[in-house]
Amino acid sequence: MKSSKRRLQALTEGSDGLPNYIKMDDSETSIPPVLRSRLHDLFSQIEKEFDLLYAENLNLQEKIDILSEKLERESNIGDRQNQDFIEFETTGKNSKVKLAQSNSQKVKASHKLRVQTSKIVSSFKAPTYNCQLVREFTGHKDGIWDVSSARPGQALFGTASADHTACVWSVEWGKCLLQYTGHSGSVNSIRFHPTRDIALTSSGDNTAHVWQAAVNWDLPRGQSSEEELEGGGEESLGEGGDRPEVLRTPLTELTGHIGVVVAADWLTGGDHVITASWDRTANLYDVETGDCLQILTGHDHELTHASAHHSSRLVVTASRDTTFRLWDFREPIHSVSVFQGHTESVTSAVFTREDKVVSGSDDRSVKVWDVRNMRSALATIRSDSSVNRVGVSSTGLIAIPHDNRQVRLFDLQGQRLARLPRSSRQGHRRMVTSVAWAEDLSNINFFSCGFDRRILGWSIQPSKEN
């Protein structure tokens, strides 16, 4: 509930935290200037008080995380010790296995078994990963809702922000090369076309836009991101004399929704687009004409996410009604399957390369599903915080961003692999909203973004001992 309220608030507020109805021009409001000024002062004081409370909360959360990790380690040690209490007794041709109830029941054979059990446990241990922060990208003036990597071969990624802009960034230079300002509301998602230099964004202005995403590589490089990170400074867009190119006009505007459009994605081939809206529908559009081909209905509450399969005409939509739906457009008459397994709002659902679906929810769980069997999940991952937009790599690594600023990595079997560092110098300072893999890049292969207005570029590699 708290997470949903925060998202609703962020989509209705401006970049400085003031409600949009207060941020009107003089010609658009009847509020006297003196009263407007007083309201600005009051909201500024509220914001300062909130920042102080938030800082105190972060410090307490850090202490809780340290204690939780300590308890988790002790629990794992206890589990391994319990496994050592298994005894084997053999009588003639009959063998039986029993679990000892206390230390007094252990016999000499258990010592030999302890060594064997340790070897078995270690053989099933999941590989570990080294997660290192490489680069920090700053410049947005409000929280960032989404991050997406460009098509293979391009060292670019895109971001969608509540500051009403979308940006295309150079991974190498650490700079925004193109800023799209065509939306009049919060930009909630961004996706790049699979083969062309165009991008797709969805917005709180009830539309989705297709726009030219070709960048100007001749822009000045300016200061390197490594120097910015080491110096601890944050550079806004346009500082240092190397302003990004600004684009204001879309190639195509996709209209028809009567509510906020929270997500949009390209279907395989890039000729069609799927959008998800708070009006409880998902729309299928023809990109060339901008026509709405189909309106997909059935969800009982607002939609929260939509994602398309990388090679088949399949789409998943997620909703606050605790379900997600699989839409199959491979036949002239589409079919739909409903997946029920969460107890709160489903915040995202994405396909894997293995034709599975990974869903995340405000019920603090992530589930892995087989698209051919929707009766029960293949694996369930439980956490201590609401889940935002998950990302799955081509090798099956699930990255889970949380409201509590954590990003955790799991495999498709639900085995925990790693947690991204989270400290005063590394990690996000507010909730992490989205993540994206960029596996064709050598130095940085993973991005995370959040409501601290930052994008972090990470190197995630298997540990050498694996």
From TrEMBL:
Keywords: Cytoplasm, Nucleus, Repeat, WD repeat. Residues 222-244 are annotated as: Disordered. Gene3D superfamilies: YVTN repeat-like/Quinoprotein amine dehydrogenase. It comes from the Eukaryota. It is found in: Cytoplasm; Nucleus. Residues 225-237 have a biased composition (Acidic residues). The keyword GTP-binding does not apply. WD repeats lie at residues 180-212, 254-295, 296-330, 339-379. One of its GO terms (cellular component) is nucleus. Its main location: cytoplasm. Pfam families: WD40. This is WD repeat-containing protein 37. It comes from Parnassius mnemosyne (clouded apollo). The lineage of its organism: Eukaryota, Metazoa, Ecdysozoa, Arthropoda, Hexapoda.
